[in-house]
Amino acid sequence: MNLFLHTLFVAISTSTLVTGRGWEFVTNGTSGILALEAIIVSPTLAIFFDFSGTGGPLQINGHSAWGALWNLETNQATALDVVSDTFCASGGLLSNGTMVSVGGIGLTGTTAIDGRMGLRIFEPCSSPDGEGCTLFDNPDLVHLAETRWYPSSLRVFDGSLMIVGGSHTATTFYNMDPANSFEFFPSKDGGTPRPSAFLERSLTANLFPRVLALPDGKIFMVANNQSIIYDIEADTETILPDLPNGVRATNPFDGTITLLPLSPPLYIPEVLVCGGTNTSDLIPSLNLSSQDPASDQCSRITLTPAGIKKGWEVERMLEGRMMPEMTLLPTGQVLIINGAQTGYAAFSSVGVLQGNSNADHAAFTPSLYDPTAPLGHRISNKGLPTTDIARLYHSSVSLTPSGNILIAGSNPNANVNETVKFLTEFRVQYLNPPYFSLPRPTLSDVPAKIVFNSKFTVRVTFSAHIAAFSVVKVALMDLGYSSHAFHSSSRLVWLEAKLSSDRKTLEISSPPNNRVYPPGPGYIYLTVGDTTSVGTHVMVGSGASPPVPDQGRKI
Ligand SMILES: *[C@@H]1O[C@H](CO)[C@@H](O)[C@H](O)[C@H]1NC(C)=O
Ligand SMILES: *[C@@H]1O[C@H](CO)[C@@H](O)[C@H](O)[C@H]1NC(C)=O
Ligand SMILES: *[C@@H]1O[C@H](CO)[C@@H](O)[C@H](O)[C@H]1NC(C)=O
Ligand SMILES: *[C@@H]1O[C@H](CO)[C@@H](O)[C@H](O)[C@H]1NC(C)=O
Ligand SMILES: *[C@@H]1O[C@H](CO)[C@@H](O)[C@H](O)[C@H]1NC(C)=O
Ligand SMILES: *[C@@H]1O[C@H](CO)[C@@H](O)[C@H](O)[C@H]1NC(C)=O
Question: How many CB atoms sit inside 10 A of residue 528's CB?
Fold first, then answer.
């Protein structure tokens, strides 16, 4: 056990056993648009984005909306006025809390304007129901340097977004018109994109590259079956070992990836890649089948010189998964959810379809991955419920501020189709963890803004059923941006915390610097024993607009 996990030695006078309902799926509300991308933008609101041509029921200005604010308290969607097409975009939050949606598509005959250079700006919204909060979307004024469909976006150490790869134009399956470059928002290098040899080498299954911000500020990337570390400041790449056993993990062979929770004092980065396929990317899509088995492989690597030398460590999920998504939980576990047990991402492009879907055999039962368990004992679905709602291509998932998991979308069809096996899914679901039906600890007096390398004190309460000797853990989390089986910018940094002897206050140490936690919004969750508090929204760093200078102390 890590030193920072302070054990409670104060006995509690009464200790009653409380049993909750365990993990459960709850369906509540409809998204109105197809929720193919999702991001939490405030304690009460998420934004969903869709394709302008889907034709969902939610209307705006006399046409179907393709953006919506999802109210996490009322479970209702409100249309957001989006001008350019957000189909297969990505995005993230900047150091000043502003959400930016990046890239998209440009097709004729839709209500949208060309979104391929889109940079859509949603300023921090303090109104709980989103009243008065709007999206700025004017590609004539603010736009990317290159057209990008299927790019990835990641908040980096100076609070900017790094924008990676994509395709210049719409393609049906493989990346046939690649944007093999990186750029930034706000722009660097006078706005000139940086060519990427890595993206060139990883063609043609390299859409939505999986990119992670490491605690030293460098960027880890997986595309196809290859991986590198990219140094933004030096513009150099270091080639790392390929994913083992021929597994490929980026679109249209979507596996998923996460940075495992980072612990003080060293914040040693470990990466987990799960699912995808070992199918060769040289096979024409028409020769592929929705019945081809997906990969059950999870590969993990420690990004230290010794860890890289050791290479990827392989373990197996309980089933193959194409298009799974991994969500970090405030407990430090990783939820593996959604996707299909056979086939590929995208729709109407392989030789043997299921309806219009390139994938079949939906994975209906999530699994939990425990990063601290020994190899071979990390993955389990014990106690996890099974749903009957398939979440395949164009679905999204996010941890919410209240600590449950929002699940929406799925549409392996070109538009709204209710007659196929995998129909257009508007039902919104939550997966509630066991702590949702137990008395939960609370956090209060949390400062709205937290500077790096500092200490702050918060008030805490936890209920009488919490046993003595329970472990107290404080997680600082970025809830990330969900698009195409990748949860970009998602992060959990454990914060050192010391409980006062009267057990009423907790002294918490902030992350040491802006590379361990890229400056910007986050949520702080307190876990005591087996219960977790609601997350409290904080601004980590100065809250200034990017690029921000280095802050805190070096590690
Ligand atoms: C759905 O959400 C609403 C708003 O939070 C709530 O009032 C209602 O009880 C929920 N319904 C179910 C079935 O959970
Ligand atoms: C990765 O894929 C390339 C072809 O795309 C192949 O040449 C190489 O052997 C693969 N690596 C592994 C470890 O399978
Ligand atoms: C793809 O299928 C065609 C038609 O069945 C066949 O001629 C061709 O050899 C196949 N190509 C590959 C790479 O499997
Ligand atoms: C490819 O993946 C499938 C499905 O997981 C598996 O059955 C097969 O053994 C794998 N092939 C290789 C060469 O690893
Ligand atoms: C739904 O998909 C099926 C199978 O491709 C197709 O025959 C049907 O026309 C589609 N319906 C709509 C409304 O697009
Ligand atoms: C945040 O920074 C971005 C990029 O400079 C800018 O467009 C946006 O208006 C800023 N938002 C706030 C609230 O300062």
Answer: 25
